[in-house]
Amino acid sequence: MGGLCLRIVLNGKSASRDDVRQAIGSVRAEGHTVSVRVTYEAGDVERIIREALQDRSDIDVLVAAGGDGTINEVVAALIENLGADEEVPFNMGILPLGIANDFARGAGMNPADILASPKAAVSKDARPVDIGRLNNRVFVNMATGGFGAKVTVETDPKLKSLIGGAAYLFTGLQRFSELVGFKAKVRGENMSWEGEFLAMAIGNGRQAGGGIELCPDARIDDGLLDLTIIPSPKRDEVSTVLEHLVKQGLTSLRDQVINAQGAQFSIEAETPIQFNLDGEPVAGDRFDVRVEPGRLKLVV
Q1: Domain extent for 109
Q2: What pTM does this model have?
Q3: Residue 150 near residue 233 (C-beta atoms within 8 A)
Q4: What is the per-residue pLDDT for 8?
Q5: Are 273 and 152 part of one and the same domain?
Q6: Distance from C-alpha of 298 to C-alpha of 300, rounded to nearest angstrom
């Protein structure tokens, strides 16, 4: 059997890492062809993906090398440059190089083992996995909204790298005085809820925010999205809720949260709110969310 051809889309922040060079070199040493495209500025991913689609006959595996934001950008550019019914022409791989690596961890990868990721991309069969869309914007892992989305955006990446998920708690408590509840109506195939919420998550993957399992029952290949709503607690209980969420995930809050599964949800908010799609912000007061089952062929 001959070697495979890999095209790696590498986040420029990681281009000088010795372990990344070693990982790529180890795959080449096994007889596979690896071409690397490094991002430097806005628009590079779009350009690189268009080039990859032109070279599709020469690529077996397209690898997104970076964090959750890089994976989102690569997949979104790929999907948007294909027709609605056009299959992705190559398998997808991940080289997790971010701070949180929530999607990779939720998919069973070990970001600490950099050498294993590109080798897995050439040694294992791909499986179909889903993607989500919110107002037609792609997300691969999770869309989070409300106060939690604000905290995610405003948390210092350096702080996240030092103390992990606790950084979100720290930032949340700093922004405590700015806390306002968000009122919304949420409709799904088998559910309906209306009220004021602190945070909302719609997960294709299980975790976000550096390992916080906001949608612990989600699977990336079940053709469904998992919805979690954390209703607004009393003001003197907010810090406790945030602490439990960061330290224990939803385990200690299950009797307080709203959970649902479905292929489609609609959200109507009284005032504009922000959602983060794998870290990419989207604002509005009307959101249509749906899943595209089996859209990618992922090797992990």
Answers
A1: 5-124
A2: 0.86
A3: no
A4: 97
A5: yes
A6: 6
Structure tokens at 16: 């000088």
Report, as residue numbers or ranges, the catalytic residues: 280
CB atoms closer than 10 angstroms to residue 4 = 19
CA angle 252, 258, 262 (to 5 degrees): 125
Closest CA to 282 of 148, 143, 152: 143
Give the list of residues 6+ apart from residue 75 with CB closer than 8 angstroms, or none. Answer: 64, 92, 131, 138, 140, 296
Please report the pLDDT score of residue 168 as a whole number.
46
* CA nearest to 230, candidates 103, 145, 140: 145
Residues 141 and 276 in one domain: yes
Q: Summarize pLDDT for 25-44 with one digit per residue, the tens.
A: 999 999 999 999 999 999 99
Dmax (CA) of the chain: 64
Answer yes or no: is 46 within a domain: yes
The Cα–Cα gap between 74 and 68 comes to 10
Q: What CATH number has the domain bearing residue 27?
A: 3.40.50.10330
The pair of structure tokens assigned to 235 is 């003001």
Q: pLDDT by residue (tens digit) across 184-213?
A: 999 999 899 999 988 889 999 998 877 778
On whether residue 103 sits in a domain, the answer given is yes
